[in-house]
Amino acid sequence: MASRNVRSRPLAATAGRALAAYLKFCRRTNRFVFEPDDAQAIVDENQPVIVGSWHGQHLLVPLMRRPDQKFAVLVSRSKDGEINAAAARAMGLHVIRGSGGRNRLKTAQKGGARGFLAMLAALRSGLNVAQTADVPRGEARRCGEGIVALAKHSGRPILPVAVATERALTFESWDRARLPLPFGRGAMAMGRPIRVAADADEAGLEAARREVEAELNRCQARAEEIAGRG
After folding, report:
1. Residue 17: pLDDT above 90?
2. Of the residues 79, 92, 102, 128, which has the maximum number of CB atoms within 10 A of its CB?
3. CA nearest 51: which of 36, 60, 62?
4. pLDDT at residue 1 above 80?
5. Using CA atoms in the order 221, 166, 32, 58, what is the torsion angle rounded to 10 degrees?
6. Residue 37 φ/ψ, nearest 5 degrees
7. What pLDDT does 101 receive?
8. Could you tell me the pLDDT band of residue 136, with boundaries at 50, 70 and 90?
């Protein structure tokens, strides 16, 4: 969502901080409803957790947590990712750099393996992690294998989460990314914790992937319904 003209680190840092400040403003000025009511307690009971959301619909997800709930977030190593990384740090998140993909060679080049290991280490240290569940620039709202592999190897549950606001700008991007607008209604919908067995085979991972995908779609639809987006 960041402009491709913002390339240098100082400019990216400034743009990232501005984005974070804007998102915090939207968080304060929208009236948010949480479903279920005890969503924060679910996080507490299952920590550390893997929070998954859809790409382009995830901007406000980090601001739904309590300040004492510590999170790391996976951010692309691309030049545009510098803005997102700066925004994440300004929102109090620990940043892990790396990208996934459908092509294993490209994933390795983007630091996907390194990012995966860093997220494993974060979870084992007790830190929650958050990531988008779909593959960047892949098929929108199709869950990738990465998030279920992380759940398998870490033993930690996936919490599907969706956030929507009544008012938002929708971009003509592959993921139909939305920029929330202030002064309206908002909603966060959280799905049930999804665990992946440590001995899950290829069929088991595919079943888990489909389960996460279905639950994320349900949460997204529910958040939009509560927020009044039809």
Report:
1. yes
2. 128
3. 62
4. no
5. 60
6. -60, -30
7. 52
8. confident
